[in-house]
Amino acid sequence: MAQLRGIRGVKIPVTDLARSIDWYGEVFGFEVEWEFADADEVVRGVVGKVSNGATGLALRLNPEKARAIAGFDPVNWAVETRKDLQEWIEHLDELGIGHSPEIEASIGWLLVFNDPDGLEIHVYTDESHGVDHGDRPGYGRRVDMAG
Question: Do 74 and 138 fall into the same domain?
């Protein structure tokens, strides 16, 4: 089997395509590169890049699915350091978007906020804090791969 090299992109269902294009543009720097029209020529999906090409993002008009996953967190967006996470907090504050405080998560630090449809967005640091929270409910713990 060939090895995966990463994630090409993330596809998110939305209830209002224009609103989501604007929101993801303001928050993540999303720029539409492709649009997908149905046989009736109505555009119901777009694809582009976020954060200067860090990854691809597809938005698809699908209100039923968008409502079904509201409150779920299917993606952890990565930043390198805790300082980068602070810059995200400042960015969201400037946009007036509510968010969690910085959270000391299982491995690193985490920031949580919601898109317009209630999808929970996580921004997580690659930088580790070195604290073992494995005994706390809801936190991750290492798995012994040898045994």
Answer: yes
The predicted pLDDT at position 147 comes to 64
pTM here is 0.91
Q: Positive or negative, the Cα torsion across 70, 5, 140, 111?
A: negative
Centre a 10 Å sphere on the Cβ of residue 28 and count the other Cβ atoms it contains.
20
Segment 19-26 long-range contacts (CB within 8 Å, at least 24 positions apart): 19/116, 20/59, 20/115, 20/116, 20/117, 21/46, 21/59, 23/115, 23/116, 24/50, 24/57, 24/59, 24/115, 26/95
| Total number of domains constituting the chain | 2
Residues 77 and 146 grouped into a single domain: yes
Q: What is the mean pLDDT of each run of 10 residues along the chain (147 residues)?
A: 87 98 97 96 96 90 98 94 97 98 96 98 95 91 82
- Which own/partner pairs from 38-42 qualify as long-range (CB within 8 Å, at least 24 positions apart)? none
